[in-house]
């Protein structure tokens, strides 16, 4: 026995040393590749080639790992053979976790919302605290207990713990629901980055990135995904730390951004005071206010206003033609006429949106809060300011709660801890995950501060004729990412005349800071790696839930394990194409889509899962009713705030306004306690001797 144990330990150490050598060679090769491209850029390599080279070679590297890790063995496909060392599983979990939302949008949220947030949005720090705290819940409450049960999927837990079909069915459907919302956001990020790197259309960029996703997850399942995510984490880490360290060195004389960026916070506060007192900024605010009131006036009689606008546009085209004006002006005027709303309903929707946006931009600092204030509003101010302060603080805490609890319930994240050899390794793996995530999360606030200082200190006050090319390129890609307008006609860029989308800040950071374009390519490759790594895990989770937990369990069809793996692969392909279609519609920014999935996961899984682990009295009826009630409350509150739903469903059936001022992004704050209480109460009333023995 001791000889066999010694042999196993020796084999394990040899396996770990071999993995360490492979990882070291990969890191050195990646650094050499970046250095070679940097030298080539200095020697005159066009930036039009740098982006496609980064995209092609990194995706091909991931695809090669996916092909090498291909398997049809169920144990390998679903849980990577349960032999991933904790440190590598921690890296894979960090890559799985550092989704497009974390990599692309988190710094943007901190840039736009500051620490305090806006009246309708919690501050960016809520994401950092909520997501990081969620891993503590995973380590203490969930991961070790699930690993001890030797399961394959999260719905397996509900099947084993409670028995019957409904706990598993509800868990599988909830897993599909929250994961599909999440994966749409990742594929949207893939399209955004791929189109920027290559210059192709957004929809084609989606398909290019999707090919890399499928080559990794389709062929090798969890085994291929794990090692691909380890490789992707290295790219993500370099892509985040290199630009933020470079910017810190440029502005502060030290690369230690997380230690020194506080000095820039004080400078930003001084620049904010200057902007608030600037006459030019006041002119910009007044111009946006006038435009907002014009849209508001149109909305009083939409039909007449729409006809009047069309008449004015036709007369302008006729006048340009009569004056033999430049063809470009005539074409632009004709395009403006064609793009006008087609009917009264479309006009009302568009003008209402424009009115709200212009009222926002008519506020101080272009509608952005002061970066370092703790919450929006003022606890010592007017009644309106006190109410804003209270709602801001309440939404901050609500969002942080939803993100923490949602992290503990995300199926694609929990499945990662099935891949380690033991329960102790699962705990160690969570600790490594926290370490690798902290390396990046501690830099996100620094990134936002350094970028904002660069914008305020360098871009503001520039001539419109001398604006950098990257601004025109990003605005052409999507006006929601970047819009710039000389609204006061002075030829000078004011802070209020720029509007950045949250998804732009990280991707455009190297260009904003004037860094070499090879760094822009690296950042885009890092964002692509973050989106691909999370999409891989999500697609596998969805396909497993559909095939393994629903189709074969419900139909009771007999099939070999290999046949189940094959069907799972084709389900994965179908789900990926469906998510790509939805992402091509550009339904929202990445961060709101991802945050909604956390509320769904929190309310559907966590109450029944935690009670099922720690309380023997939890019954099947209690789990089912708790899951359904929590999920229904969350979805009801979420969907009641969606404009498309409000247009189709009678208003009497929907939520009228907000409950306690809580934004829909934090709907889980209602679903989780309802699910917990219902699960507990129903379990008390349905407990019997046989149920207790079964538990």
Count of helical regions: 28
Low-confidence spans: 1-8, 689-695
Helical content (DSSP H or I, runs of 4+): over 70%
How many strand elements? 4
Q: Helix- and strand-based class?
A: mainly alpha
Instruction: Sketch the major β-sheet.
Output: 2 strands, antiparallel
* Share in β-strands: under 5%
Gross geometry: globular
Mean pLDDT value: 81
Protein described:
With 695 residues, the protein is an all-alpha fold. Helices cover 75% and strands 1% of the residues. It contains 28 helices and 4 strands. It has helices at residues 2-42, 47-68, 74-79, 86-97, 100-113, 125-148, 154-162, 166-198, 202-252, 257-260, 262-277, 279-298, 302-322, 327-338, 344-361, 383-407, 411-414, 423-441, 444-459, 469-477, 505-512, 517-555, 561-583, 590-614, 620-640, 643-648, 668-686, 689-694; strands at 117-118, 121-122, 482-484, 498-500. The strands form 2 sheets. The protein has a two-stranded antiparallel ribbon with strand order 1-2. A two-stranded antiparallel ribbon has the order 3-4. A hairpin with a 2-residue loop joins strand 1 and strand 2. Helix 4 crosses helix 18, helix 8 (166-198) crosses helix 9 and helix 16 packs across helix 24. It is globular and about 80 Å long. The protein starts with a helix and ends with a helix. Residues 1-8 and 689-695 have low confidence and may be disordered.
